[in-house]
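[job 0417] fold request received: Exportin-4
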Amino acid sequence: MQLHFHFSVSLCHRLLSAVLRTSEVESRATRASLTELLSPQMGKDIVWFLRRWAKTYLLVDEKLYGQISMPLSTAFGADTEGAQWIVGYLLEKVINNLSVWSSEPELANDTVELLVTLVEKRERANIVVQCENWWNLAKQFASRSPPLHMLSSTVQRTLMKALVLGGFAHMDSDTKQQYWAEVLHPLQQRFLNLINQENFAQICQEEAVKQEIVATLEALCGIAEATQIDNVASLFSFLMDFLSSCIGLMEVYRNSPETVNLIIEVFVEVAHKQICYLGETKSMKLYEVCLTLLQVYSKNNLGRKRLDVAAEEDQYQDLLLIMELLTNLLSKEFIDFSDTDEVFRGQEQSSGAGRAVSAADVVLYGVNIVLPLMSQDLLKFPSLCNQYYKLITFICEIFPEKIPQLPEELFKSLMCSLELGMTSMSSEISQLCLEALSPLAEQCAKTQEKDTPLFIATRHFLKLVFDMLVLQKHNTEMTVAAGEALYTLVCLHQAEYSELVETLLSNQRDAVIYQRLADAFNSLTASSTPPTMDRKQKVAFLKSLEEFVANVGGLLCVK
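[job 0417] inference complete; emitting structure tokens
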């Protein structure tokens, strides 16, 4: 084992040497203006290797390993000249590539991903920020100087992410303040100067102005993507200053779908990357600003019809983003790394008087926007369909008590969506819908109200799930989800379940099949006590269900 370990490390060293020699040949060719003789694919391959090598072997945290190669530790470990040299070389490689290959999106994107690798780990970032090239790159990007301003939007976003990550390396307070003044202050100042112009409403559609707005929005997404637990306090405060202004831009660019989508995407990224670290007060601020965004979106799209079926996927990208935003906000309910706002020490203040905005308020308002717009044609788009059903399943699981409170038409739309997903969609979507049924049935059992629309709807779903398990072919992976849904529905509608079984048995003309089914159903509900929401009873039922499906599976399948 030890011989194999040293052989692997030795092979990696030789491979690194070969790639570095190839990389140097490429660099010298570009300095000699021979770029036309080079292959962008070769450049991609070089960066691909260097990124993965740096992530794995450069400045390894030796405390995490029981044994480590001495040559590796000596060459590229902490406080070694080799580590400082290779970091400087890789940074120079990044800058050279961005200058020479700015028109090659894939190569440029791989290059900035290498830069992210250099700064995402604090030990590497500490060396990077000591390089003069790093500061020059930061100034060049902040001033929108060529050729960096010609990079694609995706590349510029990732480059901003790298620059922000680098800013949290070890620096004295004056140096850090200078860094942020050169990286973030120009972005903020340029944006405020632009939108605060008296004639902004007249010039906002000019191409140069739109490009500046788009570049700022992309930068904000990059800043959000750079969020880590040790920098979330600073980045949240910085981004919150922008979000209100972004809502104002929704009004200005309401007839520009691409810009509206990018504005919503800023909120999506902030919620995705930061909500899990925010305590109650900060979360509330984010909920409030997201609610305002949705209100403006709703107002601007009220009654708007989109008739071009061929362009539906592009036109409804905003709908997909809104569902992602709502799902990200919901994630706070089950992924929460905050510790009473520990990362915001000294920043918290009481929220004051007035009713607080909750995640439920924002999500249910968003559902009021999304549900009426969802059609069977839109659900043919896989990404939209998946996000939609994930969202409504999360809502049913986290806020089942809110479902009966929905307006009548929205409630009907939600129930129709669940039925459509169970009966006409992929097995993945069908499983999501089944997972949504259990908490709805449990909610009915908790309230014990038998004349509500939700109680009536669950009775209908009992027959659908029963038919799925007994009469239809289904993916065996769905048996557990279907079984859990069936059990909770049976607990709620025991008489109706008995009626379904009796009807099924009475329709059997074959005595052998009749007896086989009767025995299987008797075994399935063999308990002497009526089924309840007790966990042990449910587990026993699911175990019996496996035997039931094995015994009668395919016996009565009609499709």
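[job 0417] notes: Residues 10-163 form one domain. The CA atoms of residues 341 and 347 lie 9 Å apart.
[job 0417] exit 0
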